[in-house]
Design a protein that fits this description.
heterodimer, A: 285 residues, Rossmann fold, two-stranded antiparallel sheet, B: Rossmann fold, 2 domains, 19% strand, globular
Chain lengths: 285, 319
């Protein structure tokens, strides 16, 4: 039996799990007193699809050489990655409630030093795509077949280093690299279009030599189909522009700039956030 | 008969040594950001080991990130650029993707300090030892001659340590007669003496050696310590020497703030309070000028080293 085979897709189960992840993340962030809720929520369906339907990983052997890699360049979305890794069995569920606690293994930003299953430490925006290029280039040099995935933010795309990496990947035709832009149209201070427009975003990536795809980043079928198409693309790196909604499912701050880093000073605010979620769930810790 | 590396420009020693390291370990890689000829790796490395050579283009930040990604896959990337671009331009990339993430990346800053010469003030980086030293996880080395360079590079390729190394590009006079087992925890006692301790690193060590005879003739017994590693810093050798001489002079091809002189003062003020005179660039930017002009302007050439040692020895004797 191939230990890397994932269970068949069950829409109702995935919907239920997405609700659960959002509920747990809200609890984790509220316990911590603050945290990056919006950009983690916008990635729930994308990250779940990657770990449950696309990526080959081995929770019992996180450094398995043939695994697919993921660089979460927008490292502040770490909570959603922690959910995926905990659910996949990379570490105990009990770790989840320690987000940002003193001495935690789960800091606010993705940390490969402490967390089994994280391939690159990130947190300073703009650096992850370069790292993913390096990992993809190394795989090619060594004749390895795995893919390197990289998730960048739309606000993060303001950083010039992304475009240096874009040029490099295009020039070197890194077709084992699949990048995804979490295009939730919001950055910390404002809507991206008002602060520093990214448009025409698809054209930009095409101009840098990438195969470009667009998808609804909350539609299970679209995500699965589009990522597979991006993996299949040959001769070019692939960029998927994932149209998402920041803080999706948390009506208190959904699609609002203040969802980026919510502040939860007291029990009343904690209750308000949990009650504003689309669905309730049971905490696994 | 072996190659005489002392007869070569240091950048070509760098290139040839990289080739040897690649031949010993194919995971070693040479990364450049469009300055490969200046670093001595093109065509030395690019021609001989094209698969291990990666020219990123004029994009140093991307070079550091790519190196971190390569290192995460087991490669051992050596990334070279002028010191100004290899350190201050990419300080956050080096801090997060290399030092904080603890990736096995080697960063090489070429043409350190005044050796940037005709490229002038924009390219003269006087703070790289200071800023790289202030970064947790980062080792900071500055070889003084061709054999020192080779010893250090062998160590770098074998260690799993994020490392920054200064690389002088030109030919420099011999200090070491043979390669040695570089140990970042150990300074090299080049001369033993009792009146004054002279501490140097990198480019300035040759000048410190050059004034030893003159000082001896003047009756000053100098203990000369070369620090190929500025971090980690060998505390024991410095403290033992300072306890003996009670006077220390430092000289570096850097701003006197935070580099070698800074390290010496930190150690001595805590462990062996001792009078220290720091020679180097006194908190100023560089400029297009000859080496002699810059030595004289800032007061850290051979003459100033000799004067400072004599002055320090005299001062100690009158107490």
């Amino acid at each position: 039996m191939d230990k890397h085979t994932q269970p068949a897709f069950d829409r109702a189960e995935f919907d239920r799990m997405a609700d659960e992840w959002r509920y747990i993340m809200t609890d984790m962030i509220c316990r911590a007193g603050s945290g990056h809720l919006g950009g983690a929520f916008s990635l729930v369906e994308v990250v779940m699809t990657l770990y449950y339907r696309i990526m080959r990983t081995d929770p019992a052997n996180p450094r398995w050489d043939e695994r697919d890699r993921l660089v979460l360049s927008k490292g502040h979305a770490a909570p959603v990655l922690y959910l995926a890794l905990a659910y996949q069995g990379f570490f105990p569920m009990a770790w989840l409630k320690t987000l940002n606690a003193d001495g935690t293994k789960l800091p606010s930003h993705a940390d490969a030093r402490f967390v089994p299953g994280i391939d690159m430490t990130t947190g300073s925006l703009g650096q992850g795509l370069s790292c993913a290029c390096g990992a993809a280039h190394a795989a090619r040099l060594d004749g390895k077949k795995h893919n390197v995935f990289c998730i960048i933010g739309d606000g993060e795309s303001n950083e010039g280093q992304n475009w240096e990496a874009a040029m490099f990947a295009g020039h070197h035709k890194l077709d084992n690299l699949v990048a995804i832009t979490d295009y939730n149209k919001l950055q910390i201070d404002d809507f991206t279009d008002r602060l520093l427009t990214l448009e025409p975003l698809c054209d930009k990536w095409r101009a840098f030599g990438w195969e470009v795809f667009e998808m609804d980043g909350h539609d299970w079928d679209a995500i699965y189909k589009t990522i597979n198409a991006a993996i299949a693309a040959r001769g070019k790196p692939a960029m998927i522009i994932a149209h998402t909604i920041k803080a999706k499912g948390c009506c208190l701050v959904e699609n609002k700039p203040e969802s980026h880093n919510i502040k939860v000073p007291d029990q009343a605010t904690y209750d308000k956030f949990l009650n504003s979620l689309t669905a309730k769930a049971t905490l696994p810790y | 008969m072996g190659k005489n590396f002392h007869d070569m420009e240091m950048r070509f020693v760098y290139g040839e040594t990289l080739n040897e390291l690649i031949e010993q370990n194919p995971a070693v890689m040479c990364l450049e950001a469009d300055l490969s000829k200046a670093s001595g790796t093109n065509p030395t490395v690019s021609g001989k080991h094209p698969a291990n050579f990666l020219n990123i283009g004029v994009a140093e930040a991307n070079m550091i990130g790519i190196a971190a990604g390569l290192a995460s896959e087991g490669k051992v990337p050596f990334c070279a650029s002028f010191t100004c671009f290899a350190t201050r331009r990419v300080y956050d990339q080096v801090t997060i993707s290399v030092a904080y993430a603890n990736t096995n990346v080697k960063i090489v800053g070429t043409a350190p300090g005044i050796t940037a010469g005709p490229n002038g003030g924009t390219h003269m980086c006087f703070q790289d030892l200071a800023i790289m030293r202030a970064m947790p996880n980062m080792h900071v080395y500055s070889p003084c001659d061709a054999l020192d360079l080779r010893s250090i590079m062998r160590y770098m390729a074998a260690s799993r340590q994020p490392t920054y190394m200064q690389l002088i590009r030109s030919k420099v006079p011999k200090v070491f007669d043979s390669e040695y087992a570089f140990n970042p925890e150990k300074a090299v006692v080049l001369r033993e003496g009792s009146d004054v301790t002279l501490v140097s690193t990198g480019y300035m060590t040759q000048f410190a050696v050059a004034v030893m005879d003159e000082l001896k003739s003047a009756g000053v017994s100098v203990e000369l310590l070369h620090y190929p590693s500025v971090k980690p810093f060998d505390v024991a050798t410095l403290v033992a020497s300072a306890q003996k001489t009670r006077g220390v002079v430092t000289v570096e091809n850097q701003n006197i703030i935070g580099g070698l002189g800074g390290a010496v003062c930190e150690v001595l003020s805590e462990q062996c309070p001792t009078r220290v005179k720091r020679l180097g660039v006194p908190n100023q930017f560089g400029e297009v000028a000859s080496e002699q002009y810059l030595f004289d302007k800032h007061g850290f050439g051979p003459k100033h080293i000799a004067d400072a040692c004599q002055h320090m020895a005299a001062e100690r004797k009158t107490k």
